[in-house]
Inverse folding.
């Protein structure tokens, strides 16, 4: 039934919940991948923040030259931090939204736009693409999360 809250025993049969689970897994895996991208840049640019990480490149003073920042490492870290700021709220609000009984087509639109915007944001940040590409991709994803939050509040509190 449209508009009815999903029962926990029926979640696996709920198409909206399955869509939520699919797109949430995609963005969470993308966020996890950013850890590997950051590690790749740290290793290839030999730019570390912890002294113990430099020991394979030299002991003592010779290893200290690798305790430094690198623009590529910092760019990858900022993508990862931005993911944490945006994907974590999507996971929570998206779950509440999925359980609030939205139409499948509306839910898919929300989930797909958010996922696409986060992937585009990552490429726009890492390549980097000229602005306003990165800013727009961030704003679209952020707007989707707000839209879902509004719909949850509207359903729960009859706003």
């Amino acid at each position: 039934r449209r508009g009815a809250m999903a029962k926990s025993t029926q979640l696996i049969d709920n198409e909206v919940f399955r869509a939520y689970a699919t797109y949430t897994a995609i963005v969470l895996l993308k966020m996890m991948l950013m850890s590997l991208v950051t590690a790749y840049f740290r290793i290839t640019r030999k730019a570390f923040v912890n002294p113990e990480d430099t020991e394979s490149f030299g002991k003592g003073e010779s290893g200290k030259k690798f305790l430094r920042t690198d623009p590529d490492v910092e760019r990858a870290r900022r993508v990862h931090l931005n993911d944490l700021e945006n994907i974590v709220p999507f996971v929570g609000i998206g779950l509440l939204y999925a359980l609030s009984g939205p139409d499948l087509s509306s839910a898919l639109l929300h989930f797909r736009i958010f996922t696409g915007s986060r992937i585009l944001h990552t490429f726009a940040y890492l390549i980097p693409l000229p602005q306003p590409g990165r800013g727009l991709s961030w704003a679209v994803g952020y707007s989707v999360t707000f839209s879902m939050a509004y719909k949850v509040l509207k359903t729960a509190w009859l706003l």
